[in-house]
Amino acid sequence: MQLILYSDSSPNGFKITIALAELELPYTLKHVQIDRGEHRQADFLKLNPHGRIPVLVDPEHDITLFESAAILLYLAQKYGRLLPDNPSERWAAITWLQFHAASMGPILGQRVHFERFAKHPCPDAIARYRRLSEELFSTLDQRLAEHPWLAGSEYSIADIATFGWTHIARIIEFDFSQYRHLSAWHERLGQRPAVQRGIHLPAPATGP
Questions:
Q1: CATH class assigned to 3-81
Q2: Smaller CB count within 10 Å for the chain: N or C?
């Protein structure tokens, strides 16, 4: 039985479509169109009561998952790829996956809101989230100055998760070009065929 992915064109959604492409897994894609409010419909709320994408259903094991980090961990564990076998690098990958979930996503998400969508400008909030996003770009840059991938020597779900947000940051012109190691990593990752496929599902992003 195929996996079922409920998703939309967003940083969180792209993380999972990239991972599934990397794993070369067949799956059924259900496009949840957020701009039409489909994420608030009763059928979707049964899958994720918080009304957010992505959601992954594994009918074979009767498992339903939401939160992109949890889905990435599930896929990596189930299929034995995208997490290093070496314990040190494996836990590094998990650590940087948690960094993305606890810091990168929330900070960039708030910056997107205050800079692009807030009805009334809030200069203090804009300044705060610009400063915090520069700090996280710097943190990533320092890590990537010493290692080709966030886990160390191996590409992993930590890179996929982080790329979901750097991809959107570039689209909406949040500039991190001054962080040369992060920028080089982003360009290198963006050349992977699975990444190129993943960011076009269910449709290319034209905004956040």
A1: alpha beta
A2: N
